[in-house]
Every structure is written in C-alpha cells, then in structure tokens.
Amino acid sequence: MNTRPNAEIAAAAARLVVEEGMEYGPAKRKAARLLGQRGARAPALPDNQAVEDEVRAYLELFHAETQPAELAALRSLAVIWMERLAEFRPHLTGAVWRGTATRLANIHLQLFCDDSKAAEIALIDRHIDFDVQTHRGPRGDDVDMLLVGSPCPTLGETVTVCLSILDHDDLRGALRPDGRGRAERGDLAALRRMMAAP
C-alpha cells in the first residue's frame, strides 16, 4: 500500500495547524483538498498521531525559538481558568496539554459537571461573556462547548478558551492513556507538575 499521499496530507495538515491555528480534523480535510486528494480514489486521511508527529517536526524546524515561550504563556493562562472553574473538575486537553501549541492555539478545557448548565450559570454569575457551540463528545453525542475570549498579556492578544461540558460520569474514561501510553488530558495538579518539569 502506498502511504506517501497519506504522509503528504499529514505534513500539509501540520503546517495548517501551526501556521493557521486549525484543529486536526479540519486541517486534514483542507490539506487533502489542497493536495487534490479527493474522491473515491483518495487515500484515507492520516490519524491524529501522524499529524501530531508532523506538527512536532514542523515546530522544531521553524518555531523552535518562539514556541516554548508561547506554550508557557498558554499553560499559565490555562492554570488561571482551571483555578477559576475548579468546582467543575477541569482537565486540560488538546495542543496546550500535549505541548504543541503556539500563540494561535485555543485552550481546551473539559469540565465534568453533575448539571450541564451549571458552568454556564457560573460564567453568567461572574459576568463572563461566552458563546455556545456543540461538538462531538466522548460518547459520540453532541455536547455543549462554551467559548470565552480571555486576554493573555504575555502574548499581547486574546486567546479563545474552549470549555467542553461533559457529564461527571465521563471523567473515569477520560483518564485512560492514548495508544502510546500518554495521558490525553490532565487536571490542575498534573499541569503544574508538567510546567515545573525541566
């Protein structure tokens, strides 16, 4: 089987992730279109791990001097939001957790709530503006995602904090490692340990 088109899509998707701040799914689809890999004869899209490997290689090649500081700023901002929303058992996931984020990345927090509307009420009570979207949850159903614009003084711009509202019962399954044995998300204590590591 020829895996070259698949590898080309992964590399092109990685560039879109880093340079345009796209999420993996949309980046893979756009990369396939840009490369003319569409239709019945098109190769299967690469998995997220293949794209992440390419993202890490791209960062090392083109952003090695700037990305670590940008990641540190985003993780510091994530800490603030995890402290602010501690009652909802926040877990950081996505590029900021995995260490591949640049200044264009969103901060993705998963909130595990007994009441799905409790997080919205908490934001309203604190006079925090947010938009609501839906996306696919861990069980394959649609879940709410609250989008908050948060100033990041270190980066000098506003960062989007994405708060996925999940059921409290989803927390147990959320802690399973990925195919390479790595945690796909972490709580505030885990994030602080990661930030303190050399």
Helix content: 40-55%
CATH second-level architecture of the largest domain: 2-Layer Sandwich
N/C terminus separation? 41 Å
CATH topology call of the largest domain: Beta Polymerase, domain 2
| Helix/strand class | alpha+beta
The topology string of helices and strands comes to HHHHEHEHEEEHEH
What's the total number of strands?
Answer: 6
Give me the Rg, rounded: 17 Å
What is the average of the pLDDT values?
90
| Count of discrete alpha- or pi-helical segments spanning 4 or more residues | 8
Give the CATH level 1 class of the largest domain. Answer: Alpha Beta
Give a description of the structure:
This protein is an alpha+beta fold and 198 residues long. It has two domains: 4-62, no CATH class; 67-196, Beta Polymerase, domain 2. The protein has eight helices and six strands. The chain has a six-stranded mixed β-sheet with strand order 3-4-5-2-1-6. A hairpin with a 5-residue loop joins strand 3 and strand 4 (142-152). The longest helix is centred in the middle third of the chain and has 18 residues, at 67-84. It is globular, with a radius of gyration of 17 Å. The model has no long low-confidence stretch (mean pLDDT 90).
